[in-house]
Every structure is written in C-alpha cells, then in structure tokens.
C-alpha cells in the first residue's frame, strides 16, 4: 500500500500524493520534499519505487528482507536506515518490534514496513508542526520520524521498569510462587535484552547522524539529532541498570529459596526430635519386661504423660534458643 | 521561583537581583557575572528566561524535562550541563537524586531545578570566597557549583560503605535474619548502582571540561576542574570496589546458607538415628513373643535402659568423630 | 581433486578446466577469471598449484594445515582468506564446521578444503548469475562465495534458536528430566560458542574487505561486501543474545531445582509430623501402665482413633495455612 | 616533621639539611638536588613549604587530604604524584596502605605522608647508591623511590598468593570449617581487590612516566621507569589471576557444600529406612492380635531378630549398590 | 653453562663456539651470526656476557631474575624478549613453565634460562634448515626459536582440551565422585588460566614484531612472524573457549548436584511415609484398649498385614504418579 505526502518547503504547505507517477512528478519540482510510505509492498511495487528513485538493488533487497539490524548505510545518492518501533503486548507479555526501512534522499524519504506502525501518523503531525519551526528540508522529516519512534520507547520501558520493581517486591513479600516468579523474571529479562539490542545499534546510527563531519546536515539540524541520541542513550542506560538489577534479583531469589529450605529443615529437625523422644518414652513403657516398677504405680501413667510433656517443652525451648 | 546574584568581576562585589528585567540589565554591563537560579519554574518563566538569554529552544525543553542523563552539550553561545545532587534518605533507605540543569554562557550561569537543592546556598558562599582567590569570570562560579555538588557525594558514599561493611559483618555474626539481609543487600547494591550511573557520565562531563583543547577555560581554570574530576573518579572507584564486594558477599551468603543447611541435616541425621535405634530396641522388647527370656530377668528392664543409653552414647561419639 | 572454472569477463561466458596446465594457460589470457577448487589435495598437488600461481610457501603451508582461525592475510600478489562453513549434525547434535582456505589473486581464486562443501556448487550458480549483474572481475566470485557461506549460517542458527526456546519451555513445563536438560543446555551453549568463534573473526575479515582504503575493491564492490558484513553481524548478535539467554536459563533452572527441593521438604515435614504424632498417641496407649482408665472404656478404642483422625486433620489444616 | 637531604649532583656527595630555610638556600646552588620529607606536617608547615617552593595551592591541599587515588598531575613548574605503600597486617589479616604525596620539581622532590613509611629509608640508601651509577638529577631520586615502593609489593603479594593456595588446599582437605573458610576467602579477595586498585592507577602513572613524549626524562631514564612499570604490571597480572582463581574457589566450594549435603541425605535415607523397617517389624510383632502363631513358637523371638538383621543387611547392600 | 653456535650468513655454514672469547672474535667477522645459549649462568658469567655484548645492566638484571612477564623491550642496540616454554607434568597434573630471556642484537641472539629447555635443540635444527630457505640474518634464528616454542604449546593444549571434554563426559556419566571432579575441574581451569596468561602477552610481543613500522625486519621476515602470531592467537582463542566451557561445566555440575539431592529427598519422602504409615497401623493394633474387636478375629492378624501391604502399594503408586 502506497501512501505519500509532499511538502513545498518554501511555502510550507502539504499535499497528499496517491500514485507513484504523481510522486515522481512532484519530485521534479525543486522545492518539493516527498515522503513515500510503503506498507507491506509487493516485490514489484518495491522494484518500481526502486527504479523510480534510482535506489541501489542491494538496498531495495535489504528493505524487502526482515530481521535486519538497526543500521545506517551510505549509498551513492541516498542513505538506507533501518530502525525499529517497539510496542508492549499484554499476554503473554512480550515486545512486538516492527522493522522500518528508511531511504533518505536529498529531497525524499521512503519508509517501508510490513506491519502497521502507528508512529507514522504521529510523525506526519509532528512534521507539519516542525516544518514551521525548523529550517532544512528532508532532515526535518527524518528528525520527526526518528524522534517519534524513540519517544514511543519510553512508555514501554517505564512499564518494564515497573514490572521489574514489582518482581523485586514479590521476592520479599514472602508469598511468591516460585515457578511463575522465575518465569516472569526470565521473560522480563528477555524483553530488556531485546530492547537493549535495538537501542544499542540505533545509538550507533544516531552517532553517525550527529557526527560533525557528516555533509548531510547543517549545524542546526545536528542539535536535533543530538537530542534523539540523548533519548536513546537514556533508554540504553535504563535497560542496563535493570538488566543488572534483575540478575541480582535472580541471585537473591536463590539465596532466599535456599534459606527457606534451611528454615523448613530446622523446623523438621525440631519437631521430629521432640516427637521421636516422646515416642521412644512411650515405646520404653510399652516394653514387656516383668519387673518394671513404675508400671504399677497408681499415678504412673499420669507421671509418664507429664514427663513427656515436660521433656517436649524443654526441647522446644532449647531449639528456640539455638535458632 | 527566580533568584539571582550578580558579581562585578573587577570590583569583586556581589548584589542580589530580584527580577528578570533587572538581570538582563545587569548583564548589559560588561564586567558583570550573573547567576540566575530557577526553582521549579513554570513553562512560561522558562520561556521568558530562554528568550532573554537567547537560549536554544531544544536546550530549554531539555531543562524542563526530568530524567536527563548527566551531560554537557555545546550550543552556539552557551553550554548546557546536567548534573545530579545526591542525598541519603533514611527509611526506606534510598538515594534522593535531584537533577540540576545548568546553562553556562560567557558571563552568566543559569541553574534550573524542580526540587530544593541545599548545595546551592553552599555554592553561593564558596563563590564569594573563591572569587577573591581565583581569576576568571563565570568559570569560578561553575567550579564552585560543581565542586560543592561532588563534595556532597562523599558523606553519602561513606555511609553506604559503612553499611556494606556492616552487612558483611552480619554475614559472619551467625545471627542474621536471612530475608532482611538479602533485602538490605539488594537495596544497597541498587544504591551503589544509582550512584555509579550518576558518577560515570559526570566523569565524562568533567573530562570534556578538563580537555586542554577546550576554548572555554584558561590553563589556570583547568587545574580546578581537574581536581573535581579527580574527586568524581574516587567516587566511581569506590563504588566499583563495593559493588564487586557486595557481589562476593551475596555469593558468600549462598555458601553459608547451604552450609548451614548441611549442618542442620547432619544434626538431624545424628539425632534421628540415635533415637530411632533406641525406639527400635524398645519396640523389640515390646514384642509379644512368648519366649523372650530377658523379659523375665529381675534386672532386665534396667539392663535394657542401660543398653539403650550405651548405644546412644556410642553412636553420638561416632557421629562426632565423623563430623 | 582439482576442479576449475574459467570465465571470460568480457563475454561473460564460462568454461570448465580440467587440468592445472590448462588453468595456467587460461590465466595467460588477460580477460580470464579463474576459479580453482582443490578438494583434499595431496601435498604435491598443493605444491604444484603454489608454484604455478607463485603462492608464498607459508600461505601454502597454512592452507594444508587444519584448524586455522578465520582470517585474511595480505601477501605480495595475493590474499589468503580462511573461512568456515557450518552444518548442523543431528545425533549427537553438534556443528560440523569445514575449513575453507581461499587464495585471492588479481584474476584467480583458489579454494582448498579437505571435506566436501556443498556451498561451493551453490557458489558456482550464484557466480554465473551475478557476473551478469555486477561489474568487476574476481571480486564478484569472492562475493558469491562468501555470501553463499554466510547465508548458510542462518538455517543452522535458526534451528539453534528454536532449540534454545524449546529448552526454556521445557524448564517451565514441570516435567523436565534434569540430567538430560542440563546436558542439552550445555551442548547447545557449546554450539553457540562455536558459531560465535567463527562469526567473530569472520566479521573482522569482512571489516578489512569493506574498508574504504582497501585498494582491491572499487566503491561498487564495497556495497556488496558490506551486505555480507551485515549478515555476519546479525549472526554474531543473535548468538550473543542466546548465549546470554541460555545462561539465564541455567540460573533459572538452579532456582527451580532448589525450590522443588524446598517443596519436597515441606511435604515431608507435614506428612512426617502428622504421622509421628499419631504414632506417638498409639505408642502412649500401647504402654503397659496398670492404671490407664481410658483403656477400659467401652468406646476407648473408637475414641482413640477419632482423636488421632481429628489431630491429623487439624495439623494438615495448620500446615496448609502455613504454606 | 621535616627531614631533608641534599645532593651535589656533580660531586655526588650528600648532606643532611635540618630546616626549611637551609633547604631553600641549598636549592639556590644550581648543582643541588634536594629531597624534603614531611612526616605528618601541620597545615602551617605545609603552607610554608608550598610557599617556599611555589607549589600550587590546589596541589598542597591535595597532599594534605587523605584518600587520593594514585595519580600524576602536571602543574606549571612541578608534578604531583600520589603513590601508595602496602604492608601486610597480621590479625585481622588486612593490608595497611599508606599514602605518599610526591612533589617533583626540576631539582627537588618533596614527599608528604601522615604515617611512618619504612620504604623511605631504603630509598635513601638506594639513592646514594644509584647516584653513582646513573646520570640525571632528581629523576634518579624519583626512580629510587618508586622502585623501592613497588619492590615492597612483592613480599605482600607472595604471602597473599600463598594464602590463596592454602585456601584451595583447605577446600579439598575435607576438614574445612565452612564459616571461617568463607570469611577468610572473602577477606583475602578484598585484599587482592585493594591491591588491584592501587596497582591499576599506579600502572597508569608509570605509563605517563615512560611515555617517550615526556620532556622530563631523557632516553636513559626511561629505561629505568620502564622497569618499574614492568614490576607493577606483574603485580596487577598476578592479582588478576588470583582474583579469578578465588572466584572459582568460591564456586567450587558451593558445589562441594551441596554435594556434602547430598551425601548426608543419602546416608540419612539409607539409615532411616533400615531402622524404620526394623521398627515396623517390631511394631507388627508387638500387636495384640489374639491369633499370631509365630508369637508362640519357641524360637519365634530369635527368628524375629534374625529376620530383622537379615533384612537390614539386605537393605544396606542394596543402598551401597545404588550409591 | 655456555653453548654457542656461529653461522656464516653468506656461506650458510655453522660452527660450534666453546668460549666467550671465541664468540666475541666470531662476532668481529661481519658475516657472522652468533647464537649464545646460557644455561643457568652464574651472576659473573652473565656480567661478562653483558660486558662483552654491551648489554644494558638493567636488561642483564632482568634476565637474571625469574618471573618476568612475556615482553619485548627496546634498548639502544638490542631488544630484550622474555618468552615462556610450556610442558605438561603428569602427577599432580600441572604446567611446567620455563622462562627464556632473549637478547636480540643486530648479529647475535643470546638466550638465558635456568632450566633445561628441549625446544632449544629443536630450534638449532630448524635454524640450520631455515637458513637455507630464508634470507636475512639473525631474524631467521629468532623466527626459528619463537616458532619452535609456540609449536610446543599445541600438544599441551590438545591434552588439556581432551581433559576438559573428559570432565564434561564424567559430569553426565552419573558416576562421578564429586570432590575429585571439582578438584580436577579447578586444577584444569588453573592450567588454562596459566596458559592464557602466557599467550596473552606473547601475542602482544608478536604484535610488536609484526608491526610494519618496525625497522628490524624486512617485509619478507614479517610474513613469518605473522605466522607465529597466528598460532599464538589460536592458542589464546582455544583457551578462552574452554575456560568459558569449564565455567558452564561448573554451573551445570551445581544444577546436577542440586537435582540429585532433590531426587534423594523424594525417595526419602516416599519411603518414610510408607513405612511410617505401616508403623502407625502396627502401633494402633498394639494399643492396650480392652475393647478392640478386630484383635480377637481369627484372621485379624492376616488382615492387618494385608491392610498394611495394600496401603503401602497404594502409596507407592501415588508417589510414582506424582514424581
């Protein structure tokens, strides 16, 4: 599905474009900035666009393959960027990551993706707003896009941070069901890892974009991309903090489990010994020796029960002190 | 809330300033150094200040957002620094970190923060004192500010170090309550991690400030910032040492817990076996066989008890030796 | 076994070559690109080829030794590359890695290997196809070869990723047989490690190949090798993700094992105490004291059994609540 | 306490100096090299020395504060070095580290420390000896000092290495008392960590000193400092080896503790089951059923005991085989 | 013990030299390359050689001290290299490392060692062989020496790799004796660590030797040292792989030990509960209540035993299902 938007960068007005032919025509006007969005395009559509914009076949092939890493690659007349959007999915809790290939030419930007990406609508709004404030042509659009994408990481990350804190609280609440705890922890760790592996290379991409030697951007635009760079750095930092913290939580969990076992065993020790001592006494007075004088005492039985009770209490006191 | 202080750098005298208009006027005098402190400013106040000092909108927006990372960013006519102050909070023990955005111009310094920061008053005192000793204009103020902030890390860090040592002592005191121990350890580790994540990027900021190629500072001022750099390095070093040490403590704890379990089980083994052996004897002599000659001996009962006692003692001796 | 293919790079037609002599002759024609494949060559064959192509003795010796690391080495008139192909073997599951030594001259490429490598046939097809699309001589062949090799990593890697996910599911399925689980996990980890140790140095090789200062390649060819570089980076990244994940799985397993032990012990505690309490009561009423009034009650026995049952139920309720 | 030594670098003769005034006078003679040692100086003494040698106030302040990191800092006319001496303290075993601040001028060296440092006397002897062999002025003194300090690390390190080996032997001796073992291991690890944190930055200092671009030293002197650098590298290497080894020891300990627990439990399993089986038999023959023919057999009792013994032996055999 | 060999690099003929005087004389002839081997030399011998070859006293001192790190140091007219040979010792299994100091002058190479090193004889053979093939003077000798040393690492490493694999097999064989397993694993890990700490710095040395800016070697010689570099890289790589693998083995061992404990406990749980239930029944029918009708039934006893057997079987079935 092809969707396009053209912007006259002098008059700062926008116009929808509905076909590739129209888009090519628009690009012929020197003041026009064009954004072409391809949602789940067929191989043919992609080839056509590639041909129309003189995109390198290798770059077009990259855009049609999934599971690239976030990257930026320089070609003759354009750059190819791969970025990821991230959304939290509720059950089972996992991250839905969508790949977005971006062709950045001098006056056009082409986005290719195989899944619907809500960030793109937001980008459109930001672009129309930003175009009034910022100079520069297609760079404003690229900035609007990347900024929107990275901004959407924060609600996802905040939710994960909350879950990490909740997990830790569960650890000390004394009522954790171990198996689900470990499972949740492992799954959360995986989500942090996933986010880390997106944020890491994207930071490198932004590092390239904010490099002063980059001929694409003027000094002014650099500041904006530095801002996005800063955001992605915060994502990476927070992820690192919580990955470390989750590892500690896992270790702490092991200590607590081992210690619970210890407590259980102490209780067993104490209880068994008390009971077995009493049982031994009962066994002794149940022996069939002929001459066992206490068996014939009137209060023998009462005395026996008392002895048992007293010894039990004494043992319990001793165990309590030892604990 | 706006608070400002101006300093005539020739005559080295200070004067309070109470409004933004006055501040702008003060800045018009070429010898004046101005410090503007904005406590919890509204968006409008911030915009006004931004306009008055020609601050870049992106920088102003950064200052109004929380949760930046410590950083330094160069803009056309000023630098934006983000630094953190740290305070220990007693219960639950955690670190209160306050963000401080600093705009550093040629003759002004603007601090923006949303929480009260006691370090700022101390900074004022140090500035008035330092201005007599050190040459250079706004740099003396910046040095006074950063030095005060970093100096305040040490009492916090020292308290954490003490807690780490106390935790380790608890580990070997033999009387630790495991769950609270693990919880305290985990919380302390988190505090060290938090401090590390502040000290790390701040060190980078100071690295930039002490870089000889930096046109902002003269050779003389460099020495001072190198001193602050050195302090932050010590913070980072100590934090690293104790994070490592806390991990070892966690591991040691697991060994000790496992070993305690082992001891408990050995005790149980010994005690159960002794008791069950005695109970078995009692059971044997409690059997109802017709021909059990010892049951009819006069001293059979006494002998039985003696046998039990002797076997128990023997077993206990054997177990003691085995241990 | 020698197999060779020559390509007239102007007319883009291919021809089989069957002997070394013929190959040398082919190379004399300036438009010819030659691919020589040596499968399990004898020392003599290798020497002959080395002499015919003026290969350095050290490079020839390297090619005849196994267990080199992936590498690229520059010699006077050629490069020596070592690359690895990877295949999954079913039982016992392990990776079969085959070493491929590649001599890259200005107009020839010589591959040496001691095991059959199916990727080579695929390479031949790709070369004949690519030669029509891409300019440049032997570089197209090298690209076809390396691209084929690296592409073959993905099915292997995908299978390993699936196994890693399956292992994790087994962990929480509650029905895992521990010993085989640990064994599988350890073996899988080893396979990831093996793949990592191939992908890491190969990435470095491709880094050299895509270096702009490299005189071997024109700008155009660089793009292609950058694509291969990107693929190998993805392999390395995925491997790192899953090595980390497998470590977490191993840790989680330990927690779960410890916790299962805990549960077992709790059950034992509860069951033993209930039973021993009942046994104690039976022991008490089995004592031979003369005056034990309840023994003579008509419903004494029934009462005794009732008391035992009631106490057992009470204890079970208490234990359930404690859990 | 001020102590000073002057050396005429031409005549190579030494002379004690007793006051600051005398020291200043000595320095006026162009051939004189002066070593000033300040032991636990008052703030005033330090200020006086600072003024007399034109030391930067920041450097003087650094020297009066404790807990600096090992470092080298360049000032206008001198360098400030901070180095540490290390001594082993017996009980509780820990490292006593003493800080030594060193001001290195063109013709003077000032050492400041707050604790007695035996290495300084040794340094004096080495200086007088070295001055005869080596050219160059104050550099010979600095070399003598640093070399002496670093040489003293080796006996301390060797003792720690021995303790690490002894700990490992204890681990497998089968007679370790766990709590003290873990405590010793943790304390030893901390000592290694402390030494590491001294050796690391000191290596960096020596790296600066051996840097060829350093204008302070001639080619000849470089060789000597490279030797010290080499020694400190060996310290750092050995420390890293044993820190790694101690971590493995800790892990191995956990395995052994867990396994001991396992053994204990197996023994308990075997012993309990044997005893409880016997007790069950005794209980059965202690039942009060009217018709239990074996109770009336003449050899019933003997047979019962025999049955118990035989079953016990059989069970023991089975358990031994299972183990 | 002094042993020397001279080689006329033009005529490529070799001659034994028996005294230092002769060696000096030989060196006077411009075409001569001299190899001097000092086995366990006295301080005096070393001094004499040092004087004869104008070696720097610091370098001579280094050569007489043991426990240097592998290194290369440039002096005025020569290089000092320290390398290590490695041999496997059988019982207790450990690595015997021998230090070899190498003075490399323009036309001489002096080796100093305090233990017999079999690699040196091999080196002599290789030198005489290589000298015929390779140009260049003393460099051929150095190459022959280093190549021989590094080649000898491989059999040692291969044996260690085999032991690592054997350890892993023992882990899953189900018949491991834990203590010796852990001890072997720890000892093997230490051996890998030792080898790593030799290979690491030696790689750095070879990095220096293969550096193109090095004036010592011509382009041709570089290729040879690059080959040695490659070998040492393989050693380091393999060591890293197996150190990682041994850590995983240690972790897996802990999981298996914990799980074995779990199994043991489950067996205990099942067995105890079955037996105690039976014992309880026996205890109940052993009570002395007057009115216990079943005691008087003719088949009461048989029924009781049947009940016990049936309940035992039922419980065992339940436990089997639960497992």
Automatic annotation (TrEMBL), chains A, B, C, D, E:
Q: Which Pfam families does its entry note?
A: CorA
Q: What is this protein called?
A: Magnesium transport protein CorA
**Keyword Ion transport carried by entry:** yes
Q: Which InterPro entries does this entry report, sorted A to Z?
A: CorA_cytoplasmic_dom, CorA_TM1_TM2, Mg/Co-transport_prot_CorA, MgTranspt_CorA/ZnTranspt_ZntB
Q: Which SUPFAM superfamilies match?
A: CorA soluble domain-like, Magnesium transport protein CorA, transmembrane region
Report the Gene3D superfamilies cross-referenced here.
Answer: CorA soluble domain-like, Magnesium transport protein CorA, transmembrane region
Q: Which UniProt keywords apply?
A: Cell membrane, Ion transport, Magnesium, Membrane, Transmembrane, Transmembrane helix, Transport
Q: Which gene encodes it?
A: corA
Stated role: Mediates influx of magnesium ions. Alternates between open and closed states. Activated by low cytoplasmic Mg(2+) levels. Inactive when cytoplasmic Mg(2+) levels are high.
Tell me the compartments it is located in. Cell membrane; Membrane
Entry superkingdom = Bacteria
């Amino acid at each position: 599905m092809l969707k396009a938007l053209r912007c006259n960068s002098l008059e700062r007005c926008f116009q929808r474009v509905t076909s590739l032919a129209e888009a090519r025509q628009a690009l012929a006007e020197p003041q026009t900035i064009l954004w072409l969005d391809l949602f789940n395009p067929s191989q043919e559509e992609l080839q056509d666009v590639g041909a129309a914009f003189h995109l390198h076949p290798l770059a077009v092939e990259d855009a049609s393959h999934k599971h690239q890493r976030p990257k930026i690659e320089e070609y003759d007349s354009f750059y190819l960027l791969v970025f990821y959007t991230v959304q939290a999915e509720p059950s089972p809790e996992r991250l839905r990551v969508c790949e977005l290939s971006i062709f950045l030419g001098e006056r056009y930007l082409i986005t290719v993706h195989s899944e619907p990406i809500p960030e793109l609508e937001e980008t459109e709004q930001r672009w129309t707003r930003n175009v009034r404030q910022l100079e520069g042509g297609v760079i404003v659009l690229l900035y609007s896009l990347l900024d929107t994408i990275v901004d959407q990481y924060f609600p996802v990350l905040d939710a994960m941070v909350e879950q990490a804190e909740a997990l830790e609280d569960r650890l000390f609440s004394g009522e954790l069901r171990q198996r689900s705890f470990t499972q949740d922890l492992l799954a959360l760790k995986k989500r942090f890892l996933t986010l880390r592996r997106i944020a890491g290379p994207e930071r490198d991409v932004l590092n390239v974009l904010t490099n002063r030697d980059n001929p694409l951007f003027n000094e002014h635009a650099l500041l904006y991309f530095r801002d996005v760079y800063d955001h992605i750095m915060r994502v990476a930092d927070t992820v690192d903090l919580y990955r470390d913290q989750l590892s500690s939580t896992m270790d702490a969990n092991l200590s607590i489990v081992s210690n619970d076992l210890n407590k259980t065993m102490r209780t067993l020790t104490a209880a068994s010994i008390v009971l077995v001592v009493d049982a031994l006494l009962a066994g002794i007075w149940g022996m069939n020796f002929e001459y066992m004088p206490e068996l014939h005492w009137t209060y023998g039985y009462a005395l026996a029960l008392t002895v048992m009770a007293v010894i039990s209490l004494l043992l319990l006191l001793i165990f309590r002190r030892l604990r």
